[in-house]
Queue: 2 jobs
Job 1
Amino acid sequence: MAQKSAIEIKPLSGALGAEVLGADGKDPATHEQIHDALMDHGVLMIRDQDLTPAQHKAFCRSLGEPLPVPFVHTLEDHPEIIAVIKEADERTEMVFGGTWHTDFSFLAAPPKASCLYARELPPFGGDTLFASMTGAYETLSRGMRAMLEGLGVAHSGRRSYGPVGTFANDQLDSMNVTAGESGDAEVVHPVVAVIPENGKRSLFVNDIYAIRFDGMTEAESEPLLKFLCEHAQRPENLCRLTWRPGSLALWDNRTTTHYAIDDYDGHRREMHRVTIAGVPLTGVQ
Ligand code: SIN
């Protein structure tokens, strides 16, 4: 039987997130502890890794199957890895991931997790913010929780990947994204999702992909969606990941939203992301 390695898990804030020290992503003996820590903390910053793209994917397989990602072009030799890049001379209006979101929440089976590895970092900035969507749910009033538990919410990639979405206008210099009509598709998820591994309840909305409540118009839905997203983004419901060389972040994509901070003009940043497949979400029965 594999020996459990001693890894240190240090919470990053009262809401979510933990730093993981002393783990080696290449060592299967650490994988179960890392999975458990992910379910407990929502997002992990695993320090001091030294991974090739193949080893990055192998680590991700300990959590599930890497997903063939839609719309975003991948590394040529690794169709499960996207390179999230901002060049030093790039002055686009936004960076990839620079809006509060959950990765590909518009898929019928939203990803279980994402795993982002730092390949090149700016000398300052480029942190990533995370919000706890289980915390967001738990801090709503009893009446609001009860109302939301009966609702569905349509998610769509159209603001980003549809024919008139951000990427159709070619707003990123450094990444290849193919926008198109399939970006307009809508998928309905429960507003309050129940996480299969632990039964936690999570508010499954985000600023960019959750577009309206099921059976309602966008105009009708907008005020409440805006309230819920802003409620989730209160400072006390966040943690901030600061990157260092060798850092590997892993997040539960169903219980968190995140935001890439674009504050490092003049410097290059390159990250490799593997997205791990999930299952269709179920709501409160
Ligand atoms: C992402 O949204 O996947 C990218 C996050 C980041 O670049 O920090």
Note: The pocket of succinic acid is lined by residues 84, 96-97, 103, 114, 116, 128, 258, 260, 271, 273 (CB under 6 Å).
Job 2
Amino acid sequence: MSHTVLVVNDKTLQKMKNHYGVPASLPAGAVFAGKVDGCSVTGYRSGKVLFQGKNAAVESAKWDGQAAVSKPKKASVPSENLPEGFSAMSVIGSDEVGTGDYFGPITVVAAYVEKNRIPDLKALGVRDSKDMKDPEIISVAKDLLKIIPYSLLILRNEKYNDLQESGMSQGKIKAILHNQALAKLHGKIAPDKPEAVLIDQFAEKSIYYRHLKEQKRVIQENVFFSTKGESVHLAVAAASILARYAFLKEMDQLSEKAGFTVPKGAGPAVDKAAARLIRTYSESILRHFTKLHFANTEKAKKIVHGFS
Ligand code: MN
């Protein structure tokens, strides 16, 4: 049985408790426990949250990437050894946004930061986007767009739902998007070449390449993987900022179409917003706005139809 562990702060633990509920009896040390489709979730006083079952990765991904979440100290995915002086090298970094959000697309960006641009990027305020609020991300992104080569891919909801329903895992979808963004950017900067490529790690290396078996071109030369890639090289931080900026713009467009602000994440606010869309339009509209396979779809339907 597959499992995933997240370590979260008190605020997120409380949010998760509200989300998953508290059963009549709890394991020792636990503060909440709940079941969703294909996954049982148990949260402990220590901040550790255990996801078990075939949908453990999908369910935990909904909480991963939220500002309040911290990864366990010992990352479940090991980072490989990077060359010495890596942070000062000319690097293409890639990162994605939106995988844990019920509403909105997945955006993936590959960004090229040449070593002589590193001081400029630092001066611009480029750093780990998890420490930045949206308005700052937007303003830094607007400057970044003008000064570094990048490539952006947006996988909108209909297409995502098609792929997901065809049996493709979110991990494979992400791998394909990263590889495509990297290939596009290599083309853009040619004949220049980066000294290395750093992918913000979401899967083990062997699994990443297995996902890419059917791809025509696989970027493999000098490719490294690291969790918390933003703190390893500014190229990943830049990619992350641009991916979030693109995601925010897409969310603005979706909000305009919906007629109200569509919320981020995958918590109760999201269920209510989806219910509002069903009431205003119809259930089928969710395909255009959301990642349908998330448990939020069923929760929204329950809100509308008034039973649980
Ligand atoms: Mn990432």
Note: The chain has three domains: 3-67, 86-253, 266-304.
